Amino acid sequence: MTEAAIRRTPGTPCWVSLMVHGLTATEEFYHALFGWEFTPGPQQLGPYVRGLLDGREIAGIGQLPPDRHLPIAWMTYLATDDADKTAETIRSCGGTVGVGPLDAAEAGRMAIAADPAGAVFGIWQAAAHTGTAVAGAHGTPVWNELITRETSAVGKFYEALFGYDVEATVSADFDFLTLRLEGRPVASLHGLGRALDRDRGAHWMTHFEVADADAAARLVTELGGQVIRRPREGATGRLATVADPEGAVFTIVQSDPVV
């Protein structure tokens, strides 16, 4: 595969990962929910596996050291051509870099950062590992949305970072931005104001495609997870907000057919 064929436009969500305390139990949950199989990945930050569908990489799950009590949350990675340069830009624009940049074996170079509102995200400079290899099928990440208090200032941060074209939904009671690259929507920012959960704060939310949102929500509960917002109709399909047994929150969506 050529370099041009695998390059993702900088700023495009390209991977999602999760750090948990019980790696084996978490593998069992996502295997039952999404059908993922697992293979070992780079171990720089401890035990780590990649979830696969039909042998193709979907997402990563790592194990936290027993003494680390970090929030359990799915993390969105944004593609970059130069992790070190992007890390410098993050700092100069008011964000923070908590991990890296560092090499993940031959897979690529990464850093973990937070935007000025505190939402944690990753940046990924691809080498052997280019990111999620399947889109649209059951169990694949199909959208990433930043949930934050207000979008104006933090929208300028991401715009400065990756040069997104920012499209605002103009409404007195709805604070929403769509981030576009090369004319294509790639992510969104949703400002909740005072409704933002204080315990979680600003965060990126991963949306995973499912064949049946109602059935998947029931299965989450049967597997020891929790339904936070019951299945409902959204702008792009039927969706529900759920959490896995360790409390990692994500959205399941049964997308409307493209006509």
TrEMBL record:
Gene source species: Streptomyces paludis
InterPro entries listed in its UniProt record: Anthracycline_SecMetBiosynth, Glyas_Bleomycin-R_OHBP_Dase, Glyas_Fos-R_dOase_dom, Glyoxalase_6, VOC_core
Record-linked PANTHER family: CONSERVED PROTEIN (PTHR33993:SF10), GLYOXALASE-RELATED (PTHR33993)
Coiled-coil parts of chain: none
CDD domains: SgaA_N_like
Segment forming the signal sequence: none
Pfam families referenced in this protein's UniProt entry, alphabetically: Glyoxalase, Glyoxalase_6
Name the record gives this protein: VOC family protein
Domain (VOC): residue spans on this chain: 12-126, 140-255
